Amino acid sequence: MSDVAAPDLDGHTAFITGTTRGIGKEIALSLADRGCNVVSTGKTVDDTDADLDGTIHETATECEACGVDAHAIQLDLRDAEEVAAAATEAIDVFGEVDIVINNASAIEIASVESMPANRFDLLTAVNVRGTYLTSRAFVPHLREIGGGQILTNAPPVAMDRGPGKAAYAWSKMGMTFVTLSLAGELEAAGIAANAFWPVTAIDTRATRYFGMGTEDDWRSPAIVADTVLELLDRDSSFTGNAVYDEEILREAGVDDFAEYNLTEGDPAALSAQMFDPDYERPA
């Protein structure tokens, strides 16, 4: 992990969606390593018969090994009552939750013609609606405690069409739209809201399943977790931004991203270009 991203999060508590594995788990462990209590949420509570390892309880246990308190809540982001109940439970357990991270999302890359309506509904329900429900559930509490941060794993909105990926692109950019709208609504209350997104593809279950490049094109989830740490190190005046990981880490003093690469060489900007075909790294 980068030495740059080192905020002291002792006394803070984060509610994170999608912590079973991948980016969400890496974020949870990185925050716990900095002293932050963690609410680990997701659908998987038993991986005995699952194709993939990992549960929300295992993530919570690993966070506790860092010396913090953690609590696991099974959560289906499509269920508004479950989301509201999870927020209430998290606040009841910890007394205060001042960091909300919308990480979980569904992915399916397909054209309009080939994607049935129920799959479109799934992407919309988990991604944009789930972000809406989760963020909204914590707003009264964040107002009550006088601040906090809402962070969303979603890209800058830089295009008005996504041939071959319309449903996924719409749902991911919808997550950003909700988050940046909240920034405007909550700024006066001292609550920051920002979106973050990796420039390169990240080594996750989805990246491998959908064949999005090879290991030469991927970075580890640690770069996203370090980006989150850097954002949490900023005060509430930094709000209403949709940022790339490289951008934030460069501002923090990182000029060599080799530690995050899976292989030698600099991975292409596949993730940024998925939502901004004209994206180019700064010279």
How is this structure best described in words?
- With 283 residues, the protein is α/β, with parallel strands linked by helices.
- The protein has a single domain (13-273), classed as NAD(P)-binding Rossmann-like Domain (Rossmann fold).
- It is built from nine helices and nine strands.
- The strands form two sheets. The protein has a seven-stranded parallel β-sheet, sandwiched between helices. Strands 7-8 form a two-stranded parallel sheet.
- The protein is globular and about 45 Å long.
- The two termini are 25 Å apart.
Quick structural overview:
The protein has 283 residues and is α/β, with parallel strands linked by helices. The chain is built from 9 helices and 9 strands. Helix 3 runs parallel beside helix 4 (117-145).
Number of domains: 1
Spatial shape: globular
CATH architectural grouping: 3-Layer(aba) Sandwich
Q: How many distinct helices?
A: 9
The beta-strand count equals: 9
Query: What's the story with the biggest beta sheet?
Result: 7 strands, parallel
- What CATH calls the topology is Rossmann fold
| SSE order, one letter for each helix or strand | EHEHEHEHEHEEHEHEHH
Low-confidence stretches: none
CATH class: Alpha Beta
Helix content: 40-55%
What strand order characterises the main sheet? 3-2-1-4-5-6-9
Quaternary class: single chain
Q: Going by CATH, what is the homologous superfamily?
A: NAD(P)-binding Rossmann-like Domain
Give the mean pLDDT: 94
Strand percentage lies at 5-15%
Structural class: alpha/beta
